[in-house]
Inverse folding.
């Protein structure tokens, strides 16, 4: 595994991950990239001084997804032993969504260019997406005679709705940033030179919130997508008991009463 495959930079409570494979348009299917995603996710999970992650790509692409040349080289082997292909996905690229799903702090995808195939899915694994006006998105697996193997069929309908998700997946069409915003796939579209400043601005705003309340809020939002109302309310009650026991909650209440800005410590 190479630490150079995904660069890790920490600035205050914000961490930036940069996929650093511009020579292959930041394809993410290689074993070293998969392992590095697990490593940087674990680093964030264990560092309670982190409140937000920004994910972006080096060069002109966010991520081209899987390495198609590698797929072509593996085609005959995969056809000869389908069960092996199943293991290849489970032990390979599917480790990325599982690693990112465990992260309790918000993740912002700063989509600097093409997000295609598994690259589009990677952007969807983030909690917030900011796109350069030159970015493009495509759930293009059908064009290669394959299916979304890394979670795209799970993420896309939840973000853009059933009809649009089916259209994008069945046609394999690539859409521009403006359309991505219109269907709710991204939150903001900005000129490329404003992309990282915009992502940093959002991340900075998030990172100023009470850290433990932030983590519990993300967990509650994610779990509530799949729970009955009574279960979600029970979980909220338990987390609220933890949140209201923090010093940051006390500080926020005092600051509000005293009409001043709160100073949070993460306690």
């Amino acid at each position: 595994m190479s630490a150079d495959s995904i660069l890790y930079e920490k600035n205050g409570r914000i961490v930036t991950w940069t996929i650093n494979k511009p020579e292959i348009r930041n394809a993410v299917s290689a074993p070293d990239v998969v392992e590095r995603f697990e490593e940087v996710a674990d680093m964030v999970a264990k560092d309670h001084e982190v409140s937000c992650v920004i994910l972006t790509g080096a060069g002109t692409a966010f991520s081209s997804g899987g390495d198609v040349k590698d797929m072509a080289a593996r085609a005959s082997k995969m056809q000869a032993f389908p069960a092996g292909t199943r293991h290849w996905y489970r032990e390979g690229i599917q480790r990325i969504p599982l690693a990112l799903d465990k992260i309790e702090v918000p993740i912002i995808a700063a989509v600097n260019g093409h997000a295609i195939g598994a690259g589009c899915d990677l952007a969807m694994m983030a909690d917030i997406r900011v796109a350069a006006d030159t970015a493009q998105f495509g759930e293009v697996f059908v064009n290669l005679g394959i299916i979304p193997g890394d979670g795209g069929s799970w993420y896309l309908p939840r973000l853009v709705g059933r009809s649009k998700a089916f259209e994008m997946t069945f046609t394999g069409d690539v859409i521009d940033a403006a359309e991505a915003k219109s269907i709710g796939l991204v939150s903001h579209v900005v000129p490329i030179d404003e992309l990282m400043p915009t992502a940093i601005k959002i991340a900075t705003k998030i990172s100023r919130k009470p850290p433990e309340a932030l983590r519990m809020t993300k967990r509650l939002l994610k779990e509530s997508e799949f729970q009955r109302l009574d279960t979600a309310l029970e979980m909220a009650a338990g987390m609220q008991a933890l949140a209201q026991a923090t010093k940051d909650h006390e500080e926020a209440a005092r600051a509000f009463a005293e009409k001043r800005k709160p100073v949070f410590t993460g306690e």
In short: The domain at 6-207 is CATH 3.90.226.10 (2-enoyl-CoA Hydratase; Chain A, domain 1). The two ends are 35 Å apart (CA to CA). The mean pLDDT is 92. The first helix runs from residue 31 to 46.
